[in-house]
Amino acid sequence: MIIVGLGGILNDAACAVLKDGTLVAAIEEKKIARSSSPGKLPNQAISGALHLAGATAEQVDCVAITRPFGEGTDTAMHLHIRARFPNARLVAVDHHAAHAASAYYASPFEDATVLTLDRIGDFCCGARWHGHGNELTLEKELYYPDSLGDLYGRVTELLGYKSNADEHKVQWVSTSGDDRFVPVFMNALSLNRPGWPRLDRSYFEGDEDFSDKFYGELGIEAGAPVPANLHHHVAAGVQRATENAVLRMAHGAERICLAGGLGLNALLVAALEKEHDVFVQPVAGNAGTAVGAALHAWHRVYRNTGRGALGHLYLGPEFSPEEVKQVLENCKLRFRYLLTTDEIISTAVEQLTDQRILAWMQGRMEFGSRALGNRSILASPLDPYSTENLNNYIKHREPFRKFAASVPAELASEYFDVGRNSRFLATVGRVKPAHRKTFATAIMGENLVRVHTVEEKDNPLYYHLLEAAGKKTGLPVLYNTSFNLFNDPLVCSPRDAARGFFSSGIDAMLVGNFLLQK
Fold it and tell me: Which of 146, 163, 273, 431 could form a disulfide with 419 if both were Cys (CB 3.0 to 4.6 A apart)?
């Protein structure tokens, strides 16, 4: 049985393919097409995902599509789907039901509380579900405007960033703030009384602005910009109040599954991990609803009981040596071809130990916004200037945005305290005292660090690169950041990689077996 899942049609459209219950492909349109049109089907992602699944449109049994999927009438989209998939059954899945399915059915749990939290989706901005066996039962919903995601987005704009895009920046800024403004946001969420969060409208004015009361409690003039020296304290206020609100919504649960845009907040995930056994859908935002829609159809519509926990996120396209060589030659680029895997790894280690920044494009592209070792920019923590070079000369971004530390899973506990969701870079950990000097440039706040634990079965090549780095230097850890520049999506193709390499301060690049150097 082949099920195509479509999600994020209005924002971050994606396609996933489930084949006999196994997730075999998932691609965001903006990565493969390098752009996307809100309200349009992700046609290139559909074609790419079907190709990876070894299936044709005529062989598709079901197309499951997540609401909302268009403005105004849905007739044209329905006709388009019918024409493209002539033999498929169409299933429309509510937004938060798709989020819930993406988290619970991909989790290792047979019984769990499921929280879905985002800015707004089908008027609902949050829900609590109970997952047991093959069933998902809705227990309670949170409706707009009582939206944690909307409050976080408002604060993002208040601090001079772009909402629906830069919330992750506010998260990282918060790590250096104190608790002085936490009571303001706790009161704004009505967390001073029992029950779920409910926005106190006296703190807001209209659909977008904060009220004079809110500014007064911050101690600044109404409508004035927040002074730069208060940014991290305001960010800490909304971050910790949000964590408190979600912990309250999770009260009484032993196991938690989390999805929705707030699931991308790694500090929130870490806060939940302190009190619960947690699985967060690593592609927690709108793109992940493509997976959720397909899983919903498999389990709830077709009543299949077979479940498999999420294996890995390397679900996008990969490119043969012939395809890579053709691109490099067409671009008139000089390269060296490495004959073996051992030569690829030894060359990469040589570049990194020479304190060079290395772009690393291998195998299938990751699904989601996080690079997990197939579309990454790598550096050695032993290079004292690595994070400065990565931020200032390559990524051109703020110094408070730190880089992840990739480490073999079985060695992680030697260096870090971190939860299970580090496998997908979805949480944060703490550096152990003996290693704080080594990782000083990656530390945020009180010894926090982004940790990516790598299992050999997930990514053998990247795992063996970390092993080789450890044998060479004594430290089996590499700094890892996503291979994307200029606010573009993660690179997908060899052409994307070549453009990024020659438009940046990256020193060397390995694309499959091909080494390029400056």
Answer: 273
CB atoms within 10 A of CB 338: 18
Which of the following CATH numbers is that of domain 321-517: 3.40.1050.10, 3.90.870.20, 3.30.2310.20, 3.40.50.2300?
Answer: 3.90.870.20
CA distance 481 to 483: 7
Alpha-helical (H) ranges within 396-492 are 412-415, 460-473
pTM value?
0.94
* Number of alpha carbons in the 13 Å side-chain half-sphere of residue 229: 2
Return phi, psi of residue 133, to 5°. Answer: 60, -120
Q: What is the pLDDT of residue 369?
A: 94
Fold of 2-98+287-301: Nucleotidyltransferase; domain 5 (3.30.420)
* 390-444 confidence digits (pLDDT tens): 887 788 888 888 899 999 999 999 999 999 999 999 999 999 999 999 999 999 9
Rounded CA-CA distance 97/238 in Å is 27
Give the helix/strand (H/E) hosting 361: strand 358-361
pLDDT digits (tens, 9 = 90+) for 170-179: 999 999 999 9
Write out the DSSP string of 55-98: --GGG--EEEEESP--SS--HHHHHHHHHHSTTPEEEEE-HHHH
What is the location of CATH 3.30.420.40 in the chain?
2-98+287-301, 148-280
pLDDT in tens, 238-288: 999 999 999 999 999 999 999 999 999 999 999 999 999 999 999 999 999
What are the tens digits of pLDDT across the range 297-313? 999 999 999 887 788 99
The 3-state DSSP class for residue 295 equals: helix
- Cβ-proximal residues to 118 (8 Å cutoff; 6+ apart), any chain: 95, 96, 99, 125, 126, 147, 149, 260, 261, 262, 285, 286
Contact 100, 259 (CB under 8 A): yes
pLDDT recorded at residue 348: 98
pLDDT score of 122 = 66
Q: What is the per-residue pLDDT for 68?
A: 87
> What architecture is domain 148-280?
2-Layer Sandwich (3.30)
